[in-house]
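thought: fold this chain, then report.
action: predict
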Amino acid sequence: MPVLHTIRRLGVLLLVAAALHTAAAATPAAADEPGWTAEPAAGTAAARPGGARPYFYLSGPAGTVLEDRLALANTTDQERTVTLRGADAYNTADGALAVRPARESTAAGAWISFGAGATVKIPPRTRAVVPFTVTVPPASPPGDHPAAVVATEAGHEVGVRVHLRVSGPTLAALTVEDVAVRGKGAAAVVAYTLVNRGNVALTPELALHAEGLFGEVPGRGARALPVELLPGQRVELTEPWPGAPVLDRVRIGLTVTAPGGARATADASAWFVPWGIAARTGLGLLVLGGTTLAALLLVRTRRTGRDQPDGAAPTAGPATPAPEHELTGASR
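observation:
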């Protein structure tokens, strides 16, 4: 089973992958402190103060060859041998960013090449800068093509995000699907699916509106979702809804927007019934109904007994007719 490599967002977008768990470092360091780091070499593109870059950003027309450099730093007293490769980036089902294994990277990850520098030996306390190229195929469609540069050594993997955009028209579009309410009360959540129908990565915002039989129900104002939705990807998310009613039938509406003019809406309905109270109420009504019926029968029986005069003999019923005899012609 392929190992997923999860991207962490630490003020900047870094793709950090590990064989067993993800890194928690505050810098673009390797997973589980392997003794070396990988990050974009200092440059002018997307640079922060000091020249450091949190990720690679490359753009150009289809058919072009783009170049950049990866910096590897060995912070230990022993030599390190690091293997480099490109990888496709994608969204996991819950919205996290991940990279595919080498054998499954057939899109933008396969366009990245380190040539003869795919395996690098780094002496102790040394920093190495390794160039690489991104060869964009001539027939590549315009838009974003998510990828990453992955460095591996002794079971440790570090990924650095590559924002790659092919020149041409861009489209920001998405849909909201499969809206449903789960749970109740303060623990209620709204589950839904987001699908990126365009060709650029989206950072969506979500607003929740609700209307019940008894009037408007508290929803949630627009807020940024903790997900970057890549082109062609779908993610399944949940939105906390602490304002869910206790007893009502509610129509829930979701509105999702993203930069570039992307906007989508979807709705669903849900019943909120406190079943414990309903069950006790139903049992009480059943007992009350049974008691009322018994009382009515008792009253009717007593009234029937009082309809007979005191001391009067019971009224005889209708006389039974005498049996008819067959005529035989014989005298009696």
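thought: worth noting. DSSP finds one helix and 20 strands in the chain.
final: tokens above.
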